[in-house]
Each structure stands twice: as C-alpha cells, then as structure tokens.
Amino acid sequence: MLRAKALIGLAAAILTGACIGGRSEAEETDAPKMLIELHAKAYVENWVVFGGGIKEMYLYQPTTAKRTARGTTTVWGVNMPNPDSTDWYGSRHAFLESKRKRHESTSGWERYFYTKVQWEIDCQKGQVGITQMVFYDEDGVVIRSGKPSDDLEDPVPDSNADRFLRSFCNQTRRRYFREVFDDTTSSSEGNR
To answer: What share of the chain is helix, strand, coil (3-state, %, to 5)?
Structure first.
C-alpha cells in the first residue's frame, strides 16, 4: 500500500520537475516512468475505477465522453498495471501468459504495458461495446491498434463491461481513482 503512495509522490515530482540532489525522484525508483505518469494523470484528472483483471485496474476518463450521431456516448478507458502490485511488470507477464495459453503469438508484445479502450455506451438500452483498442509499450509507443466492433450488446452480468455500464450511467456508483488511492494510503498509514 505504501508503494501506491510513493507512486503518487513520484508522479507529482515528474509533473513539477522536482529534483533531489540534481536527480529527479523518478530517477531514484525502479518504477517505470510510464506507470508513474499514468497514475499521476488518473489522480489529477479524477479517472473512474470500474474493474480489473490480473494485476491490472480498469479506469475511464470522464472528460473524454462525447455524444455520437446515433445518440450513444463514447468514452476512453485505460487498462493499466495495478499500483499495489509487487511486480511492476506483472500485468505484462499475465498478458503474455494468456496469449500463450490461447496459442497466440507473443512476438511484438514483449514490451506491452497498458491499453487504451474506447467504449460506446447506450445508457437507455443498457448496452455497451468496445469500438477501439490501442496497445502501448512501456515507452508509450503503439504496439497495435484496432476496431473490434461497432455493435453494442447487453453486458454479461457482473463482468467488467457490466460494472463499466453501471458506473458510467449512474454517477452515484462511481469510484474515483483519487478516492481509491486516498483510502488505500490512509488505511496503510493506520496499520503502521
């Protein structure tokens, strides 16, 4: 839990350019710079946490929401490594292992770090879809991108898509990254 607090401190140092003895705080850690930057943005921009996978957390960026011509809404989400992970690259290892289990090639994915997902939502009909996915390496370079579908579907109950739909369409159900971080750090400080 203290690792999450350290990430936000490091993120603040990156955003402000703070230095210690001529070196930035970010240079003093083993945390990937991209991880620090993602967590800083999630905290500062108040991203919403809605789910997760193996060693990942799934968030969306409310400020990117746009109405479409067909009356739905699109919004960008980010699947990023969990800040409490004991292994900065755990989500990459899990991602590569899942590809191997499905007998898919892992070539080109060795530096995978996070994914941006564009969701499309119809709150009235209770349907969602993923319209774009962009996969990035730890330097922020695009590995691959694609458009899975333009179709909206009823989400599987209790899935990440279902949690996303409920969180997006009902603001009272939103859990902001800042709240998750603050809860995590305050509970870990109480345990010392």
So the answer is: 40, 30, 35
